[in-house]
Amino acid sequence: MSVRAEAPVGGGTQERTVTVWQGRVRMRVVSKGRGPVLIFFHGPWGLTWDPFLDRLAESFTVYAPEHPGTTPDAHDDVYHLDGLWDLVLCYDELLETLGIRDAAFVGHSFGGMVACEVAAAYPDRVRRLAMIAPLGFWRDPDRIVNWMMLEPAALRAHIFRDPEGDAARRMFPRTDAQDAATTEARVRLMWAMGTTGKFIWPIPDKGLKKRIHRVKAPSLLVWGREDRLVPAVYAQEFTRRLSGARVETIDGAGHAPHLEQTDTVAPVVRDFLSQ
Amino acid sequence: MKISAFHLMPYRELPADFEQRYESVWVTPPWWELADARRVGQYYNWTLDELQYAAKVGFDGVCTNEHHQNAYGFMPSPNLMGSVLARATNGTNVAIVQMGATLPTSNPPLRVAEEYAMLDCISGGRLVAGLPLGSPMDVNLCYGITPMEHRERYREAVALTLKAWQAREIFPWNGRYFQLATVNLWPRPIQQPHPPVWIPGSGSISTFDFAVEHDVCYCFLSYSGARSAKTMMDGYWRVVADKGRDLNPYRAGFLQLVVVAENDARAEEKYARHVEYFYHKCLHVPAMWFSPPGNQDYRSLVATMSNPVRRAENPKNLRYRDFVEKGFVIAGSPATVRDRLKEEVIKSLRVGNLMVLLQIGSMPHELALENIELFGREVLPGLRDVWDDEGWVNHWWPERLRQRATPVPAGLAAGGA
């Protein structure tokens, strides 16, 4: 375990780095808050401690692990994982190391898919499961745009309903600057897409449909009505396989509703997890 | 020098507004709107005819290459083309330079080892085995290989290929990406211990290291000419020196676009629009597609992002005279072309294995033949002996063809064995 200071994280958070996979994979875990344990699985653009997580930390002890390879100075650790099975086992080891037997899971996009996979592999580890615009399925008529191949401006426009809004600005480095911080942010974004893309290229359907029936936890789907990356129809793929799953569709939001409409989404997720 | 004719096999009749109407020449150009299979059949045959003609007029080798889902150059299987050429050039001293079949998209990659061995057998030991990594468009976008696994798969496949050609015993391959319990290649290549290996690249530092460590010929396939390649190739030669290898110019290959005419003015009249077609339409690809996230390792990503290689000017803003002036294309009379190639390319970059692209973009068959003939008869002989006084051996050329080629009289070469 080690403590580091260079994280793109907000005030009041704590960090530690957990080592799993025979000592080969280091995952930094950012945490904050009080109350029942909540694990947050970030999306394909890396972990940023944002106002949504602050809101959850008012009611929960939030642990936000970084996907393998996205932790500073541990970039190459991701090469030790060959596929989704390895990744799911890493999360089990991570929870074991943190001493967490079970928890509420919240995941966004790629992280929503990972949360669901862990819930399918280890149904007893998950008390309640909230997925925000999760990946995991594929419908030929509703193809998911390969965001990894989009130019930066197009990528912003695919993730956010308002590509010039505050949420978009927090996630994306400026396109007009060349200073060291901007360059670092660009590298971080590209590498986060590469390391997450490793598990879903070229089509983000890696067999969740064969495993999702194992999930026992009550589930919530949160979807932005104007999601241009993973269209809201994908919620049906989850609801028809998860009995009792509820869908909340959020107006005025794209693929990151928790960032664009935090005031709406945070209470919805909190209330669901608190039941 | 060894000088080979390179061919992309482009679609030669794209519409004038192609680059305005379509997203990309690669991956997504709609076949049914743009192409015609009978016409394409004609292109393949012209391509073979053009390469056979190059073999006849004195070139040392003929080069084919693999690309997918595009109108820029579509030999999805270079070995099909190579086998026709191997057969047709039997009895000559022309090398079959496959630049080549792409290992990461062949599963198992043993298929490439087998087909190259076949080509070496059919050609009587005249194969040069190019082992390209493959472009991200081909490998990641068209063939679905995960960008982060692209280079790892390639390296494992190269190791497997080299072992499969040489092993005296049957062996198991328990790899990360490929598992084969009983590797026992039939046939084996004629050339021992294996055919010469060339690794084409586009300037990536990790490929320099890989090529030098494996003691193979590194080929810079550039469309931006020698001037913009100078820094890159100097970097390559530094790696060669740092790793304790000799500075044998045959360790380096380079691809250059060339058009030859009676004089410089005629070259412009004959070739300008075909050159512009190539740079404006055949290279019309979104920049992001060249580097999907994960394709570069972290260290290279940081290097690229912190010090973006001065991006060559957008070729869409350039015209024929710019391409010639900048050396993207070497154009003009035989004397002009010979002198520029010798000074700007061969000596400046220290290149022993030169490849020239002579059918460019929309260039029609008859004109391509003219260009090939003028180069072969009036330029090539003046370049052959550039390195002779230094006494280097071209270890990366089929051994039985290393002696200076004697031109085969016209009429004998093309007929085959």
Please render the helix and strand layout as text.
The complex is a heterodimer of chains A (275) and B (417).
Chain A: E1 14-20, E2 25-33, E3 37-41, H1 51-57, E4 61-65, H2 84-98, E5 103-108, H3 110-121, E6 126-132, H4 152-159, H5 166-171, H6 180-197, H7 208-211, E7 219-224, H8 235-239, E8 246-250, H9 257-260, H10 262-274
Parallel strand pairs in A: 3-4, 3-5, 5-6, 6-7, 7-8
Antiparallel strand pairs in A: 1-2, 2-4
Helix pairs in contact in A: 1-10, 2-3
Chain B: E1 2-6, H1 18-21, H2 31-34, H3 37-56, E2 61-64, H4 78-88, E3 95-98, H5 110-122, E4 127-130, H6 136-142, H7 147-166, E5 171-174, E6 179-183, E7 197-201, H8 205-213, E8 217-221, H9 225-242, E9 252-260, H10 264-282, H11 298-306, H12 320-326, E10 329-332, H13 334-349, E11 353-357, H14 365-379
Parallel strand pairs in B: 1-2, 1-11, 2-3, 3-4, 4-7, 7-8, 8-9, 9-10, 9-11
Antiparallel strand pairs in B: 5-6
Low-pLDDT stretches of chain B are 408-417
Query: CATH fold name of chain B, please?
Result: TIM Barrel
CATH architecture of chain B: Alpha-Beta Barrel
Query: How widely separated are the two ends of chain A?
Result: 33 Å
- State the helical fraction of chain A: 25-40%
Strand content of chain A: 15-25%
Structural class of chain B: alpha/beta
Radius of gyration of chain B in whole Å, from Cα? 20 Å
In CATH, the homologous superfamily of chain B goes by the name Luciferase-like domain
Largest interface: A-B, 23 and 24 residues
In total, how many domains does the architecture of chain A comprise?
1
> What is the H/E order of chain A?
EEEHEHEHEHHHHEHEHH
Strand numbers in spatial order across the main sheet of chain B: 1-2-3-4-7-8-9-11
What would CATH call the homologous superfamily of chain A?
A: Alpha/Beta hydrolase fold, catalytic domain
Largest beta-sheet characterization of chain A: 8 strands, mixed
Strand order of the largest sheet of chain A: 1-2-4-3-5-6-7-8
Oligomer: heterodimer
Q: Which whole number gives the mean pLDDT of chain A?
A: 94
How many structural domains of chain B?
1
Structural class of chain A: alpha/beta
